Amino acid sequence: MQLLTADCVIPGAERPPLRPGAVAVDAGRIVALGTPDNMRACFPAARLTALGDAILLPGFVNAHQHGRGLSQVQLGYPDDQLEPWIARRRGRKAPDAYLLTRLAAQEMLRNGVTATLHANYSYATGDYEAELRGVIRAYEETGLRATVCVGFANQGGLVYPPTDESAFRDGLSPQAQALLSQTRPAYLPLQETLVLTDRLLSEYAGHPTISIAHGPAGPQWVSDAAWQSIAAHAARTGTGIHFHLLESPAQRAVAETLCSGAVLKHLEALGVFETQVSAAHFTQARAHDVEEALRLGLTVVSNPGANMRLFNGAPPLADWRAAGLPVALGTDNCALDDSEDYLSELRLGGLLARGTGAAAKANRLTLAMDTKIGAQAIFQPDIGTIAPGQRADLVALDPTRARGPYTDPDCDPLDLILGRCTGADTLLTMVGGDIRYRAGEPPAPTAEVAEMAAAARLAGPDAGVQAEEIAEALRQELPR
């Protein structure tokens, strides 16, 4: 049993803060909360962790990211439209998914993130299961709670359907075609994907921090027959489904063609919404898409920094909030300030969601985006609030630690967090009752990651030039 005390405890978006407050934790879960005096009287033998002037609140939930511990800028390809940006990766060798994910997880913990969803991703090594197991090992070793998606895609890997891929390849130089011919499979075939999912669901059943979900890449990357099979498996096993949805103008155009503009109705007809579902981005959604999302109970994960950096526009969060759409937040490893500083990205999302409406509940709704709705988006119902029975995923912040010695004692603590705090203000990050980060700890060693990234820099002497040719050819295919 341990007892954490702080100047302020914020139990969640819907409950007033305790000033001062205390939280009792045992066996990885919250037992009780109240005033420090009452909690000490109730649990006199508990080990005390006194956090002083800190603010203690539910841990942050990064509801959509890919375990990319080095950003695209660090790896040498700057911001661009999404599709050419993706194509530029073809000029590089596959990095080590374990090392990159471990670094990303360590950075998230340093920034107060206690839980994440690792979305569909592959470095096309030709051994997707090995990649995925490396990802899971990284989360296990760091202790970050993770919903890990088993990825799948079987179309649109080069150009979105219905564009003729053969014709597109024929229009490239022989050198660029040769680079494409070296591409290894990114994912397993469908039936092998389902078998792997079953195996992982069995292996990680009851695991304290790892959960498994389906990760079909998105409507333009997955055939209807595959969606049906994945949906049926998810419904039978009770497994959540998470995918990319209407991220870019090109994806919007594909949805118009393949799904007659009604992409969510199309997925509904394939059985996708027979289980829990969340989807990332949604930036290019139209009014009828929002209405369908509300009807179907879809939880959307917004990635505002990534959407703006990759030329997809700012997500209309104020309109979504006004409509009542449940929205969580993810960094997509492409946050506005090119780091895993989750609080800075949450501030951006909260500001975009304010619109011109009343201020009274704005920050409470932003906190819910991060914690309560974030938990829903990653299929983890027992995190996101500080309440008896919930998992003890907590973060302690000191608003004066990084950027100043004074704050008005009458200031609302949530206003301080969302108006001023950054990840550098994190004092302590706890996952399932275990402290996974304390302020003052040295940063994670990065020499091994840097060496690996340098070794994976180019797939061949002219690979960068050939990848650039492919990217520019793709740009010509994008809707004008």
UniProtKB/TrEMBL annotation:
Any GO molecular function: hydrolase activity, acting on carbon-nitrogen (but not peptide) bonds
The keyword Coiled coil belongs to this UniProt entry's keyword annotation: no
Keywords associated with the record: Hydrolase, Metal-binding, Zinc
One Pfam match: Amidohydro_1
Entry-linked InterPro entries: Amidohydro-rel, Metal-dep_hydrolase_composite, Metal_Hydrolase, MQNX/HUTI_composite_N, MTA/SAH_deaminase
Gene3D superfamilies: Metal-dependent hydrolases, Urease, subunit C, domain 1
Keyword Cell inner membrane among UniProt keywords: no
Limits of the Amidohydrolase-related domain: 55-408
Aminodeoxyfutalosine deaminase/Imidazolonepropionase-like composite domain location: 21-46
PANTHER family for the chain: AMIDOHYDROLASE-RELATED DOMAIN-CONTAINING PROTEIN, AMINOHYDROLASE SSNA-RELATED
Sequence similarity: Belongs to the metallo-dependent hydrolases superfamily. ATZ/TRZ family.
Protein name according to UniProt: Amidohydrolase family protein
Lineage: Bacteria, Pseudomonadati, Pseudomonadota, Alphaproteobacteria, Rhodobacterales
